[in-house]
Amino acid sequence: MPIQVKNLTHIYSEGMPYQTVALENISFEIPDGSFVGIIGHTGSGKSTLIQHLNGLLKPKSGTILVDGLDITDPSVNLRDIRQAIGLVFQYPEYQLFEETVEKDVAFGPQNLGLSEEETTERVKEALELVGLSYEEIGQRSPFDLSGGQKRRVAIAGVIAMRPKVLILDEPTAGLDPKAHKEILRLIRTVHREERNTIILVSHNMGDIAALTDKVLVMHKGRMVMEGTPREVFSKAEQLAGMGLELPPPSKFTESLKCRGIDLAGLPLTIEEAEREIAGWIGKQK
Fold first, then answer.
1. N or C: which end of the chain has fewer CB atoms below 10 A?
2. At CA 28, angle to CA 13 and CA 58, rounded to 5?
3. Which alpha helices (DSSP H) does 20-146 contain, by range?
4. Helices 116-129 & 177-194, crossing angle to 10 degrees?
5. Maximal C-alpha separation, the chain
6. Is the confidence at residue 262, as pLDDT, over 90?
7. Strand pairing category for 165-169 and 214-219
8. Among 40, 23, 48, 27, which residue's Cα sits nearest to residue 202?
């Protein structure tokens, strides 16, 4: 399900003393089945942007084409759009509300009017995708789970809707390193198994570099850069001017270069950094 955004502008409190242009003339395309990262400093417009992609917010001007359909058209059924584009907000575990995990994950499919049998099938499938056992936790209260497990249950509730596009807003925020790693693993698994489009909003440059195939950079309500992770992170000075850092492996190897260690490339992952450093060591022998 491809997405095309053309000349999108959004204004908060228009006509009021505290009017704010949150998005200004933004255009970009997201191909079907891609994994796209959106980065930017706090207040850059990332969250405002993603809320337009499933119709939660209406633009001042511009168009948003989802699979060729302009969702800014008042005649469009946004219920259908929100079934196709799942949005997981930051700290989604705060939205858990049912007495059991099964009922919480089943809430979305039930609202689609699915049979009890198909709903149960989707619940089991979604929990399996996020690395949880239906048999073990299906009848447990979601509030008795660990923080990482709660986060996975909340994501499972969106996955159970089988969205063609999955938008994740800071999905690892506030998690310990182990839970952080587990969430990244499940996101990879969902993308591989479902073959859907994923849009990841994150302040973690390491996650963006490791997971995505395209990066959009927001700054003060504008789209200022886009490209592959390697293309975007090669512009360290421009990113620094926007308050953005390189992924940790890139940052580390850049510090080595400043100390006279001749490393040729820009490693984005720990594995790439290991190869670069090992290659340099090999040349010293």
1. C
2. 30
3. 46-52, 78-84, 101-111, 116-129, 134-137
4. 130
5. 70
6. no
7. unpaired
8. 40
Q: Which residues pair with 227 in a beta bridge?
A: 215
SS3 (DSSP) at 99: coil
Q: CA 147 from chain center: how many Å?
A: 19
Q: pLDDT value at position 248?
A: 92
The reported pTM is 0.90
Query: Check: CATH 3.40.50.300 for 3-235?
Result: yes
Q: Each residue of 67-114: pLDDT tens digit?
A: 888 998 888 888 888 888 999 988 888 889 999 999 999 999 998 888
**Are 164 and 196 spatial neighbours (Cβ–Cβ below 8 Å)?**
yes
- What's the rounded Cα separation, in Å, for the pair 230 and 216? 12
Q: Are 176 and 11 in contact (CB under 8 A)?
A: no
Domain residue extents for the chain? 3-235, 247-285
Q: Residue 165, SS3?
A: strand
Sign of the torsion angle spanned by Cα atoms 87, 88, 90, 94? positive
DSSP assignment of 125-146 equals: HHHHHTT--HHHHTTS-GGGS-
Token representation of residue 240: 């620094």
Per-residue pLDDT tens digits for 13-23: 888 888 999 99
